[in-house]
Amino acid sequence: MKNIRNFSIIAHIDHGKSTLADRIIQECGSVTDREMGTQMMDTMDIEQERGITIKAQSVRLNYVKDGKPYILNLIDTPGHVDFSYEVSKSLASSDGALLIVDAAQGVEAQTIANVYMALDNNLEILPVINKIDLPAAEPERVAEEIETSIGIDATDALLVSAKSGIGIKDLLDAIVDRVPEPSGDPDKTTKAIIYDSWFDAYLGAVALVRVFDGEIKKGQAIQLMSNKEVHNVLELMYPHPLKRHNTPSIQSGEIGIVVLGVKEVGIVNVGDTMTDAKEPCAESIGDYEPAKPFVFAGMYPIDTDKFEDLREALDKLRLNDSSLSYEPETSLALGFGFRVGFLGMLHMEVVKERLEREFNLDLIATAPSVVYNVYLNDGTLVEVQNPSELPEVNHIERIEEPYVKATVITPSEYLGNVMNLLVAKRGIQQKMDYLNEERVLLEYEVPMNEIVVGFYDTLKSISKGYASFDYDPTEFKIGDLVKLDVLVAGDVVDALSTVVPRTSSEQRGRALVKDMKEIIPRQLFEVAVQAAIGSRVIARETIKSMGKNVTAKCYGGDITRKRKLLEKQKAGKKRMKSIGKVNLPQEAFMSVLKMD
Amino acid sequence: MLLYIHIPFCDSKCSYCSFNSYVDKFHLKKTYMKALYTQLEHELARYEVQGKVIESVFIGGGTPSTVSAELYAPIFELITPFFKDNIEVTSEVNPNSGTIEWMRGLFNLGVNRLSFGVQSFNNEKLKKLARAHNSDQAKSAITNAKKVGFKNISLDIIYATAFESKALLEEDLKIAFTLPINHLSAYALTIEANTAFEHTPEVALEKLERTQWFLQAIKDHGFEQYEISNFGTYKSKHNLGYWEYKDYIGAGAGAVGFLKDTRYYPLTDIEQYIKTPLSINEETLSAEEILSEKIFLGFRSLIGVDKKILSAYQIQRAEILLEEEKLTFLEGKYYNPDYLLSDELALFLDT
């Protein structure tokens, strides 16, 4: 155990985490230059396209320092706040963390959140200032920022450029010297934490674990402590993005992949503790809590026949994403679909994109909603995940909505813009710190429903892209909220209902129907689009009826040609959802999102 | 049963035309007409034509008036025995090549209806469309047709172009209705691939109000609109036959035929056709495709759509349209009162 170092990398998006991970792998000679494709550690298409890390990856590396061999286990972490639960479990598996900060951009909101999480796990933190070869690099200023904002000593910060390979050797030496050797007792019974799990088409559900006490052996019967499931270990491997190595056992202090041959969904969960089935350990590692979704949205196949296909696709996705939760739901407007819970907005986008791309489904996603705690007059509590299910106003005693602590770091020249935005979003200031003359850290308490949609994009646009943002759910608070309904051709379209603050409801209603008028194409009939609160209509727009759709041309006997033209049009219509007599394009359902 | 004969020769190519026609193959006329004869003989046998069963013949093109009456004679000898008593025999004709002699020749062979490719009576617009005739030629050709003895005369007008004002269309109609016609086809200019207009799509210019006015103006002259593009005090049996989904023989290079559930296409290349007039490409339609065609054909004409052929879902959709007064219902059939919406109505049934 003395020669093992388990470490994570934490960083803000774009600060070069994946590039650094790739460079470390290369420096240890674990892949050849030829094998080095783009961003080895980001393996999903969507990850590479968006430049983000969704699934944590790990790799076991060999390194020699002063003639002594070491095993370096690099535990990558997802780079987005939506996946903070997975981040926390990755950190719990490590003994040290590299804190990567961009030498030009400095500390960002998300960096701070992740460092606190690392400190909670008692990790040794090695500040690493990356991109030092950029013309705009200011390593001294950034080191100072790390000290002011996070309060850790940055005098020994490592200066590197992952892109050009500067300082990588020193960094690896520092990992050996400064990251503590793993703790744990090899003589005790097996105790390991699952910090990632996924479904492999050949192996079934597999777990990526860090062994604390004892060892995991091939053939051993192990128990998953949260659900008491017992399974035999079929195979064990050390992780590597290109070539995994089989091993007969994973020892105390090591990381490895455990193959259990489990086919069922959701048995192998991130955060769970793995122990020996015959001689289980007394306590699990940390508290296991299933990932908790914060944002909910309806997902409906445009083609109503595809409901079962959608269920299968969700089942398959869940194999790789235990944080995904879903239940069937029915919408008067959209038919049969699922109410899907997500960790956040990015998670929702990624899931929708994967469902459409990998499973070839055309979906309508309704506007995402947070969970509201609705207290009825008779004292009962109803948790509402779907705005259309908000009880009648006269039954409601009060509605409580979830709040978050929002952390924003912005250059001071945009401070006014950022504060105006936070106030418009019903934010209440908790803290304002100047990190230095140019940069300010803000903490606000903001209702979550104000930030689930569009907030991040707006923040980026009013700060020319410089402000960074992170959030952490806090508590439920009472809110003066109403349900805003949309009526199309006189009927409420349940999938378009939203919960909004009473004070801005009329303005939102007007903006929404105006937007819908632009999006909905002309139909055979005149279509009224109305916004209503209860039975009171607060805004109305009318879409005029269509005048013509016909080709007045001579085709003679070549009717096939005419039919093919019509079939093209039909394919276009298939992308729309017919609700009663009106065809609504997918964008109409997302228009609810753009109500600023 | 209907019979369509395609004559792929033209003395000029119009800017908008995508039909199978050639301006440089006149030397092949004789051999082409022989090949046509061969194919017709074969089709009569294939369709098991016996007795007087052909209700309509339509000679189209191309330009049928580029071929002399003598060359048509053998063909008429072949097909006339199968004509029904009240058969409609139409030929398309261009004002510049439709001489009195030619018209008389065809009249004597048994042609009893002429359809003139007029397109406009405005010489400027005719030039833009690259038509080979002028306004005066059109007027005299139609007057001559009447003199020869034709009672059923139609003319084509093209609208929705960038080359016209409302006044121009008004003038076109005014002139048309001074002539001895009982039928008029009005086509909106549509840009097709492999035409002179392909790269100037802006020449097709439609204003909805103008179109509505124009079609109404034709009706106001007492011509009933019996399809999106067709008007008259007389309704063409050949047109109606297509929309009623009757079988039709398609003969000639570029023709289309239909038998039972199969549409077929003789070769379009004239030389190839002459070599192998019996080789065809076939397309067998699925039940779904047939239904789709019957629906859009029914909605774009007075044929209507028989409720019995529709699925339960389509009936449910049709009933919404009925309630919204976008369809009418009479004796088991849905009818479309506004042909300008016909494609949208057809799509509505399936969405």
Please mark out the parts of chain B with pLDDT under 50 across 5 or more consecutive residues, or reply none.
none
Oligomerization state of this entry?
Answer: heterodimer
Element order of chain B: H for helix, E for strand? EHEHEHEHHEHEHEEHEEEHEHEHEEH
CATH class (first level) name of the largest domain in chain A: Alpha Beta
Number of strands of chain B: 15
The CATH superfamily of the largest domain in chain B turns out to be tm_1862 like domain
Biggest interface: A-B, 29 and 48 residues
Helix content of chain A: 10-25%
Give the DSSP E fraction of chain A (strand runs of 2 or more residues). Answer: 25-35%
Give the distance, in angstroms, between the N- and C-terminal Cα atoms of chain A.
56 Å
Q: How are strands sequenced across the largest beta sheet of chain B?
A: 7-8-6-5-4-3-2-1-9
List keywords for this structure.
heterodimer; A: 596 residues; alpha+beta; Rossmann fold; Elongation Factor Tu (Ef-tu), domain 3; eight-stranded antiparallel β-sheet; six-stranded mixed β-sheet; 34% strand; B: 351 residues; pyruvate-formate lyase- activating enzyme; nine-stranded mixed β-sheet; three-stranded antiparallel β-sheet
